Every structure is written in structure tokens, then in C-alpha cells.
Amino acid sequence: MNFPYSSKKWQKISMAAVLTTVLGVGSLTAYANTGTDEAKATETSTQAEQSADTAKPANAEEPKAAAKEATAESKATTTAEQTNTTTKPAATVGLENLTLEKAIEQALESNAQLETARLNVKNADLNSMLAYKTPAQMPDDMIGTLDAAKAKYVNNATIEMNRKLNALNLKATESKIKLGAQQAYYDLLYAQDDYNLKKQSLARAEAQLKVAKAAFEVGTKAKTDVLQAEMGLAGAQAALTTAQNNLEIERMDLNDFLGVDLDKKWNIIVSHKQTSPVTQTLQQAEAEALQKRVEMTQVKEELKLAELNVELVEKYSVMATYQGRIARNNVETAKLAIEQKEREISKEVAQAYYNLKAAYQAIEFQKKAQEAAAESYRLTNLRFENGLATTLEVIQAEEELSDRENQYQRAIRTYNLAVVNFQTALGN
């Protein structure tokens, strides 16, 4: 019978088969790494081959020890990948640490939108003081007409209301800036986690290609396995490049929002919200929001102003006049505005409440899915090493694991943002 390999090649294949049978899982890769040197030693002479065959039982412990070492290293790498579900801050020399609290503080200090809002409030207060002087100094006994009464009381009340609302709106703007800073921080943190996960995926693809090549060298795998592993490696490299670009974009977006140099680099310190179930009931959350939200304060102040107009009409004119009827209609309009605003706020709070509960539950589900994908990937690798799985199956298992890792990190990010949105909906 004509064989496609030379006698020396068959000696190498026979050695691989014996090692695979005796040593079990992981030995093929170890042998592939050392097979070249052994083959050279085998080619020296027939006498050396016979000596090697005679001494094989005695020397079997050496490749077995090497295989165990390689297997242990592989398991350690897999364990490290499975446990590294969140980014750990690396020791970075010369870079400023950035925590969630630091990001909020920096945004409140140098965000351009907030600075503009503060200047607008100051100008509004100054303008109100200019309009406040003359009508306010008018004595009460000199007011004899409705127009004069409005000039003194309504205008003054409007100015005071605007001052109050300006201050509240500034606080609302500060809250939005805090929310934006947290969103930008978590976007950057997610991008950093995604980048690290893509690096892990690339490492797995490189290891798979190495194993496929070793198996092909000894003739236990076909060329297609190597090609599939190379395709998997190329895909992992492309994904890593995309993740790196996204990381740079998110970093610039954060710097832009914080009002610092766009090229500034940070040492991101991981700061996740503690994942815990919602303790408030929906009714309690709605009641808190209706008490704290700036929008409710505004519509209530507008109702007070409308009621003041009615009082002045009753005192200085007749309610049956057009002005009196308009004043009463304005009161009803202000009451309807309050009811509508209550409905809007209650709806926003309910949506944020349910989103937070769903985000909390999703973390546990995604964690279980990630663990299952990691175990599936491990078992598929074992099947591959025993010739029971193809390279394509390993690549598919690795892609599933990478996807589940990303889904888990995304679930954590979604929960953190859900906490922020819920607190914002409450008016905190």
C-alpha cells in the first residue's frame, strides 16, 4: 500500500498517537510544541530510534509533565478570563484617576452648558431688579385702578416667581449635567470593558490557531481547520480594532462633556452602583417626585399668580367684565396644567421604576448565560482536543462566549444608568 507520507513522517504521527492515548487531553498541543526537536533526534540514526522506543516507558513522564503544565496554564488562563468580568484599573503612571464622583465634580466645575445657565440666571435677576424699582415703590393708597394694582402686585409677584423658578431651573440644569456626566462615565467604562473583552477573545483565537496548526502538522486535523482558525483570528483582530476606536471616541466625548482637554487621558477607576432591588413602592416614588420636581413647582407658582389676578379684579374691578372672565379662565387653565404635569411625572417615574427593576433582573440572567457560555467553550475545546469537534465549532463557541461577556457588561451598564435615570425622575 502506498502511503502519502514518508516513513519519517509516519514515525512522527505514530509518536503523536501514542502520546495522545497515554496522556489524554492537552497532550497533543504539548507534543506539537516539542515534536520538531524529537523528530530531529529520531532522524539521527536507526539505533537512536530503537533506544528511544526502548526507553519510552521510562521517559514518558517528561512529556506528561510538560502536557500537565500546558494544561494547567490553559486552565489558569480560562479561569482568569471567566472571572475578569469587570475592568480592573491598571497601575498607570502619570495619569489622573477618574472616579464617578470625580467626573460629576469636574462637570459641575467646567461644563460649558452649566456655565451658560449660571450666567443667564444672574442676568435674569439683574433685569428683574431694574423692572422692580418703580412699581414696588408705589404706596398702596395711591392705587386706584386695576392696571395700577397689576403694575404693583402682579408684576412684583411675577418677578419673585421668576427668581424662584430661575434658581430651581439652575438646580435642574445641574441635575441634568450630573446625569450627563454619569452617562458619559459609564459609556467610557463600558467601552473600556468591551476593549478588554475583545483582547481576551483575540487571545483565545490565537491559542486556537496555534492548536489547529499543531494538529495539522502531525496530520490529525485538516487544512480547513487551520483556515477556519485563521478566519476566527482575523475576525477577533477586527473586533479589537473597532473596540479600540470606540474607546477613544467615548474618551473624547467624556472630555468634551467635562469641559477638559479633548486629548486628556484618564486612569478610569471602576465605580458601579450596588446592584440591589428597589425598596420603594411605585406609589412612594411617585409621591416623592411630585414633591421634588421643578416642573411641579413651576405650575403651582403659575396657579398662585392666576389666583392673584382674580383677587385684584375682584378688588379693583368687576368679575363680570372681560378681564374678570379671562382671569377666572386662567385659574382653570393653571389647574389643568397641574393635573397634566402630575400625569406626565407619574408616567416618567413609572417608566424609570420598571426599567430599573428589569435592569436589576437582567444582570443575574446575563451572568448565568455568560457562565454557561464559558462552560460550553471549555467543553468544546476538550472535544476538539480529543478529535470530537471541529475548529468551526470551537470558533462558534468562542464567539458565543464573547457575545455573552459583552451582554453581561452591557447589563451592568444598563443597570447603572437605570439607577441614575430613576433618581433623576424622582427629582433628586
UniProtKB/TrEMBL annotation:
Q: Which organism is it from?
A: Brevibacillus panacihumi W25
What InterPro entries does this protein map onto? OMP_efflux, TolC-like
What is the protein name given in its UniProt record?
Membrane protein
Biased composition (Basic and acidic residues) is annotated at 59-72
Q: For the region Disordered, give the residue spans.
A: 36-90
Q: Mind telling me which GO cellular component terms the entry cites? A: cell outer membrane; efflux pump complex
**Membership in a protein family:** Belongs to the outer membrane factor (OMF) (TC 1.B.17) family.
- Compositional bias segments (type: Low complexity): 73-87
